[in-house]
Write a structure and sequence with these properties.
mainly beta, Porin, eight-stranded antiparallel barrel, four-stranded antiparallel β-sheet, 15 strands, OMP/PagP_B-barrel, OMPW
Length: 222
């Protein structure tokens, strides 16, 4: 709840800035960007019962975002992208179910949808226009494929913070190039149903995904 209130506070502050500043409306209110992004998790986990750590694959996908400017410098951005990641444990102790002391457990794959709303400050510039931002994301986990090793995996949806830096390079009044980097503080509580390995075996885990997202693309002012 505190994170939701923080997000609402950030948006309210941006709206107040619009009312406080007396600027001409000679700037584009909207930007739309299309990027190709690399999503590289900086993962770690606390795994009950079998111990070990987690390994999550990287992903390369398209991303779409929309930015609305309250003033020439202050804006909010909403990004939309979804990624698929393969997941497995490493260094797990499976001796209780007849396995090795240092094993990997295939946990299949999962799709992530983390819509992220950021408050941004855009610096003035003729062609190069850098910006920084911070915001909130809410991550949905869906289309879970548990693979062949275990029965099922359940991921809890969760809120997280995001931090951002990027730069736009204006080609003309309408089109521009973009380079963007984000770091998302993203975690989830996971429950692994391993009852196929031992009756009633349920493995809890707290997983930090914390992906670093780098994107390059182009955009349009309107």
């Amino acid at each position: 709840m505190k994170r939701i209130l923080l997000g609402l506070f950030m948006v309210t502050c941006a709206m107040n800035l619009q009312a406080q500043e007396n600027e001409n409306d000679d700037f584009n209110r909207w930007k739309a960007r299309f990027r190709l992004i690399s999503v590289s998790p900086s993962e770690s986990a606390t795994i009950g019962t079998i111990g070990g750590d987690v390994e999550i694959s990287s992903a390369f996908v398209p991303e779409l975002d929309f930015t609305y400017f309250f003033t020439k410098n202050w804006a909010v951005e909403l990004i939309l992208a979804t990624t698929k990641h393969d997941v497995n444990t490493i260094g797990s102790d499976l001796t209780a179910v007849g396995g090795a002391t240092n094993s990997e457990v295939d946990l299949g794959s999962v799709w992530l949808l983390p819509p992220t709303l950021s408050l941004q400050y855009h610096f003035d510039g003729a062609k190069f226009k850098p910006y920084v931002g911070a915001g909130l994301n809410y991550t949905f986990f869906y289309s879970v494929d548990a693979g062949n090793a275990i029965q099922d995996v359940d991921y809890d949806n969760s809120f997280g913070f995001s931090f951002q830096a990027g730069i736009d390079y204006e080609l003309n009044d309408k089109w521009f190039l973009n380079l963007d980097a984000k770091y998302l503080l993203l975690n989830t509580d996971v429950t692994v149903d391993a009852s196929n390995l031992a009756p009633g075996l349920s493995i809890p885990a707290e997983v930090d995904i914390n992906p670093f997202v780098v994107g390059i693309g182009f955009g349009y002012n309107f």
